[in-house]
Amino acid sequence: MRDVAVIGVGMTKWGELWEKSLRTIFVETALLALDDAGVDRIDSMYVGSMSSGLFVGQEHIASLLADYLGQAPVPSARVETACASGGLALRLGFMEVASGMSDVVLVSGIEKMTDVSGYEATYALGTAADQEYEGYHGITFPGLYALIARAHMEKYGTTREQLALVAVKNHLNGSKNPLAQYPFKITVDSVLNSVLVADPLRLLDCSPITDGAAAVILCPIEMARKMNKPVVKITGSGHATDSIALSSRKDITWLEATYQAGKRAYAMANKKPKDIDILEVHDCFTIAEICVIEALGIVEKGKGGKAAEDEITYLEGKIPVNTSGGLKAKGHPVGATGVAQVIEIVKQLQGEAGKRQVKNPRIGMAQNMGGSGGSTVVHIFERE
Amino acid sequence: MEGIVGYGAYIPRNRIKVEEIAKVWGADAPSYKRGLMLEEKSVPSPDQDTITMSVEAAKNALMRCLINPKEIGAVYIGSESHPYAVKPSGTVLAEALGATPEVHTADLEFACKAGTEGMYVVLNLVKSGDIKYGLAVGADTSQGAPGDALEYSAAAGAAAFIFGRENVIATTLETYSYTTDTPDFWRREYQYYPQHGGRFTGDPAYFKHVVGAAKGIMDKVGMKPSDFDYVTFHQPNGKFPFRVGKMLGFEKKQIETGWLVNKLGNTYSGSSPLGLTAILDVAKPGDKVLIVSYGSGAGSDAFIFEVTERMDKARDLAPKTRELLDNNKCYLEYGEYAKYRQKIKKAT
Amino acid sequence: MTTPSRYWREIPQRYRLEANKCKKCGFVFFPPRLICSQCQNRKFEETKLAEKGKVLTFTIIRVPPQQFVDQAPYAVGIVELDDGVKLTGQIVDCDFEDLKIGKRVKIEFRKIFAEGEAGILCYGYKFVPE
């Protein structure tokens, strides 16, 4: 296997992008990544998208986007594992370069979510749950994470305030990210007084509906070393599955797929949780960040709630989590999220994260999760 | 001898008080309560309909007889509020109980007497030897037009009876039907609410048919009102059952046990069948029970049952009707009621 | 969109809680499966789920999918049935303040949703207080 590096990244401002179509958002973003990498041709591309079919009524977007990027006839494939689609696109691109089949691969993620009504968006996202045995009964995504949250609160004594602090921290980070959809600070009070969505989760526990894309360029490490910037290589990649129905899991509070994907990524990179300097995790809901850092071994099982409270996951803390603002503040165009996490890690490792720059991080990790935890992709990155 | 081997009731938990409805329409609640002898009525939740209530009532009936559902040869639901205009309710019930596919199923409709119609048919199928067991359910989620007098009484509930030949808990001594063409109450195709003939629904309709059927069945078997321990009539309001009972020579105490309407409302096809379940909940072996239904249009079915020794074993195996009526109630305001009953016009 | 065929196919589970049990390790699957996820055995026997259990966790859905608008707000929970199988479903006929982890519930047959004004009616299990 060859060593693989990230040589270019591209992301535009996320939000409700009324003027822009799916293909325009993609091409603008991908061009930024190509320019950043200093290449104008690619060998192949992957696009992570959870549900372009339900959100804009367009399938077959891999070819559409390759064409609009002026890259046809390169091979292009769409990848789907619900909200982990972007992370999986990265893994496939990584495997393709590592195997030697391609040299320059564009990995992207995109979701255009605001062209449908709230009901339709709720439905589209809901298809990541077991449609016959969860969705059929009227459960929503906030609802599934609320089930996890209440069980976690009951089992470990996690408090409502601790959940709120995850959102407060991520918005604090997001306020320093000019590309974030909601780059402003919030308070514990504003979280606790926001409208109930699925008890105990409130509106400000939830990541938003977002239009956006993210793209990175992968290549063999030798190529990256010729460029005039710090080399960031992918040293660990893990991907794992679990039952998509929450009720089928042994422990509702435990994200087994995240644990398994993390274990594989750690093993591949020969790293331990304590080696990780910065972490981007899938905080689609505040409770998710708490459960994820437990499953990745960053904190002990049941102690995830304390992490934000004790400020160890803050920008200045022992292990900064979601320096980008996370899904909560940055936005969550589902298919794009996994790729945007990579961009944050790369920028941090390269020392180019601006006002939210963590002091000299060397090893970063990105965890991207689909559904209520039914699939997870974890990557470890290191600066040479 | 043929008769009931299992019975079960189901009543939704929601209630609305007469005062709450009267307030909206500017009506005088005390006079309604006195005049109709109604205090409150049951209201189905948005997730309840004739089918769901039938399934629950039938499950309660099955709990009381512990038979294999595959041995049920006929399933009939009598209702004027079948959820589908075309597509049977009974198939859902038969499937939910596990009685399919070797089962005869039909939906019956005859205003408020559709429930006893099913009982009549099932009983006779058992008698003929064609089936071992048969299930008849009377269930309705009745709708009265907003502001109409019917709105104070139109309620929801279901009663289910399994008939058979062995292990009978109430033997059928006699049946009788009395039918004429009398347009006292109707709902045309595609109309949401029924219409009625006002006071015409009284003497020439309810009273004529209930009295006709009650007298007919008593003459047929040579019994008189004092021979019965309990009687239950169709209960469109609180007053009619007592008045018709008096006309026939029954005493108040024979009627009271099965008289549920003041707290339940008129459950249409479920009305007199639910009255019968409340009686069976307390009747002792040897007790004789008369039930007379009434359905507008118009007709009455009458049955005489004699409770057997086996009743004592069956009674406590499922929830009793008065418990369902009195426990876990939830009072609705008119707005919630209007939402639950889809009386609010929404954007499509 | 729930089409008639898709709805009909699940009737044994939705109406009668039909499950299957691995003949080797005894694990119960709902809905039934063709291969055991615990021991990879492929031989099963039919079974039915217990109709009573206790609430493991719950939420109250206040922003519902469109088909559930008339029912909102409503509680959804994961219930551990007395046979150990966990099941997701609505918890109804229970005031929200009485809803607690550990509460005993039983299965009741209810309408889950209607497919618009003119489509099929979709029935199934919900939980009510025992």
List keywords for this structure.
heterotrimer; A: 384 residues; alpha/beta; nine-stranded mixed sheet; 14 helices; C: 130 residues; mainly beta; five-stranded antiparallel sheet; three-stranded antiparallel sheet
Can I get a quick summary?
Chain B is an alpha/beta fold and 348 residues long. Chain B contains 13 helices and 14 strands. Chain B folds into 2 domains: 3-169 and 324-340, Peroxisomal Thiolase, Chain A, domain 1 (3-Layer(aba) Sandwich); 170-307, Thiolase/Chalcone synthase (Peroxisomal Thiolase, Chain A, domain 1, 3-Layer(aba) Sandwich).
What does this structure look like?
Chain C: Residues 48-110 form the ChsH2 C-terminal OB-fold domain. Chain C: Pfam families: OB_ChsH2_C (PF01796), zf-ChsH2 (PF12172). Chain C: It comes from marine sediment metagenome. Chain C: This is DUF35 domain-containing protein. The complex is a heterotrimer of chains A (384), B (348) and C (130). With 384 residues, chain A is of the alpha/beta class. Chain A is built from 14 helices and eleven strands. Chain A is 38% helix and 18% strand. In chain A, α4 (85-99) crosses α14 (334-349) and α7 crosses α11. Chain B is an alpha/beta fold and 348 residues long. Chain B has two domains: 3-169 and 324-340, Peroxisomal Thiolase, Chain A, domain 1 (3-Layer(aba) Sandwich); 170-307, 3-Layer(aba) Sandwich (Peroxisomal Thiolase, Chain A, domain 1), CATH 3.40.47.10. The longest helix of chain B has 20 residues, at 202-221. Chain C has 130 residues and is mainly β. In chain C, 9% of the residues lie in helices and 43% in strands. Chain C is built from two helices and eight strands; from the N terminus they run ααββββββββ. Chain C has helices spanning 4-9, 11-16, and strands at 18-22, 28-29, 44-48, 52-61, 74-81, 86-91, 104-114, 121-129. In chain C, the strands form two sheets. A five-stranded antiparallel beta sheet of chain C has the order 6-5-4-7-8. The N and C termini of chain C lie far apart (32 Å). The model of chain C has no long low-confidence stretch (mean pLDDT 96). At the A-C interface, α5, α6 and β5 of A face β4, β5, β6 and β8 of C.
